[in-house]
Amino acid sequence: MKSALVCGGGGFIGSHLVKRLKSEGFWVRAADLKYPEFSPTAADDFVIADLRDPGECRSIVDRRFNEVYQLAADMGGAGYIFTGEHDADVMHNSASINLNILSACVRRNNKRIFYSSSACIYPAHNQLDPDSPVTAESSAYPANPDSEYGWEKLFSERLYLSYQRNYGIEPRIARYHNIFGPEGTWTGGREKAPAALCRKVAEARDDEAIEIWGDGKQTRSFLYIDECLEGTLRLMRSDFTGPVNIGSDEMVTLNDLALTIIGIAGKTLSLRHVPGPLGVRGRNSDNRLIKESLGWAPSRPLREGLAANYEWIAGQVGKRSGTTRIGDKLPVRNDGHAAIPDIVVAAHARAHAAD
Predict the structure, then answer these.
(1) Interatomic CA distance for residues 114 and 6, integer angstroms
(2) Residues 164-179: pLDDT tens digits?
(3) What's the DSSP call for residue 282?
């Protein structure tokens, strides 16, 4: 039986990845500071461990694995990344994890390692125009990320490539662009734009306003979790090292993202712009290289993923408050998918966007 190690297996992407690997017949060990928050882990062996500790990493990587996935990091949305209040922790914690995991993998002769980098590594000066940001993989240098989170990710990319040259590691490096979906963080300050907006819409009553940081004209693209996993596994099992973007190229403004979610909820809400951390002005996944190298690129429409995400978050809001509001549960079509009402609304909304 093939085996896999998922570092960060208690997080959003990691917990979904464990389920996917189990569905493919893998024996899976997961490691994290915490268990998955919203559902039991599917891992065969889940180890509560602090991967900043070299000894704990050595105990986790105690054998050969067919595939190692390194997703563990100190990260969050714009409210966490762009305030500057967590910069030292973000850089120290994430860099320590990557240094420790690589050292432990070399010690046990684990070769194939997937590393989840981020679109935050791209130069801030290439993302000033919200209508035409530059995120081709080759544009990463000269380096000028917009945050310490981005600088650490770029450092770690180079770390993995250095271990490839010096120790024969076979890294696969993906630059994720705003991954979202059910069972992701949706409150507490580390949530990203889709989850933050879904929560605010679910909490709001008709004719209320929700907030959005800035003017809402900043652009992003958002990738549903299922497509993230598909791209991750295709890259991992290919002969291509990367780095390569894994993200949607369906770019939207934050205002339009809010309007779409409000329409999905079937509510009539307005938007109120307020000051707050923004990140770059524009960001979108350039998918030319992934199409060329893997013969595949994400294609699921954003609206479909948002419908599933909203239904899940609205359910969480309902559980927390003990109430059900209009739009908390979407009607279901005959094919089992949530129906999306075509409602036109005028709105402004609050959101977080880091990747």
Answers:
(1) 9
(2) 999 999 999 999 999 9
(3) B
Annotated catalytic residue within 115, 149, 160, 224: 149
How far is it, in rounded angstroms, from Cα 339 to Cα 332?
5
pLDDT (0 to 100) of residue 33 = 96
Cα–Cα distance list, 326 to 66, 311, 329, 332 (Å): 48, 12, 8, 15
In this prediction, residue 351 carries a pLDDT of 32
User: Would you give the distance in Å from CA 199 to the centre of its chain?
Assistant: 17
How does strand 3-7 pair with strand 67-70? Answer: parallel
Mean pLDDT of the chain: 90
Which residue reads 């009553």 in tokens?
205
| Calculated CA dihedral for residues 275, 277, 279, 280, nearest 10 degrees | 20
Q: How many residues does the chain have?
A: 355
- Pinpoint the alpha helices (H) of 35-86: 54-60, 78-81
CB 338 within 8 A of CB 307: yes
Instruction: Clarify whether 149 is annotated catalytic.
Output: yes
What would the mean pLDDT of 242-260 be, rounded to a whole number? Answer: 97
pLDDT tens, position by position, 31-80: 999 999 999 999 999 999 999 999 999 999 999 999 999 999 997 767 77
Cα separation, 274 vs 212, whole angstroms: 6
* Tokens 């010690």, located at residue: 107
- What's the rounded Cα separation, in Å, for the pair 14 and 26? 15
pTM: 0.88
User: How do the domains of the chain map onto residue ranges?
Assistant: 3-179+224-246
Complete DSSP assignment for 102-136: HHHHHHTT--EEEEEEEGGGS-GGGS--TTS----
The topology (CATH level 3) of 3-179+224-246 is Rossmann fold (3.40.50)
